[in-house]
Amino acid sequence: MTQKKPNIFYSVTWNLVLLSMGSIVLSIGIKSIAIPNGLITGGFSGLSLLIYYVFGGLSPGMWYFVLNIPLFVVGWILLSRRFFFYSLFGMVTVTLAIDLIPFTIPIHDRLLAALAAGVLIGAGAGTYLHSFGSAGGSDIIAVILNKKFNVRIGRFYFYFNLVLFSLSLGLLDIDVILYSLILAFVVSQVADYFLSMFSQRKMVIIISDRSESIAKAILKKLQRGSTFLYGRGAYTGRRKKVILTVVNNYQLKRLEEAVFTVDADAFFITENTFNVIGKGFSRRKVY
Length: 287
Prior knowledge:
Helix content is about 60%, strand content about 10%. With about 290 residues, it is of the alpha+beta class. It folds into two domains: about 10-195, no CATH class; about 200-275, 2-Layer Sandwich (Alpha-Beta Plaits). A four-stranded antiparallel β-sheet has the order 2-3-1-4, covered by helices on one side. A hairpin with a 6-residue loop joins strand 2 and strand 3 (about 240-250). The longest helix is centred in the N-terminal third of the chain and has 27 residues, at about 10-35. The radius of gyration is 24 Å and the shape is elongated.
């Protein structure tokens, strides 16, 4: 029996689509809302905007490109080729989109602008981070520090933005900085939502006297595998096969129906999990 090989063309195309869509949506938030209202974002895009507001010279997109050059030189040495080239594509897409997007979204209230820009930038980031790459910038630094020194990515983003907004205190009005902080907070919340929206899985533990029959029903009705964990009842002392399986949100009700059709007295425990790597779920992201 021959093993089915992964469709390389489909994988590459899908990753490029995610990077393109995410980068363009992010760039719309920056170019069409944040820049007209004088706001800065977090990360390297925020640093490029700060330099653009203070020194001018290059366009915001070109400042973003220039700041990324040394990062990609280091990334070529320390990161995988797959992550490097996908991230290079994402970075170039952001650079071009920021400079080429011709329209402005007419939001005149800065608070509303911060909220709207945060939603778009967070949605864009959450989309391209589903790929095997990034959009460059602080993502590259975060991955390198995590890979080499085990620095948590979220912690790096926090300290990077803390330094960025601290530098802004002497260069921008305090009102602009406060609105920008709101923008950065919205970005983080929306990006987390988009990352979990398609990745969230349910880990289910099933305790039953008919575990063999339930495992067969799961395989037949949901085409999902399961694992037996051997346990012992604390009250009865009897050994039992405890079923462990993982499904997506849409399969949960079907799983519940399959289990209780076999054993109405089964014990059914559901737990949220956000990162399942393996056959039938997510592939490991190699940095």
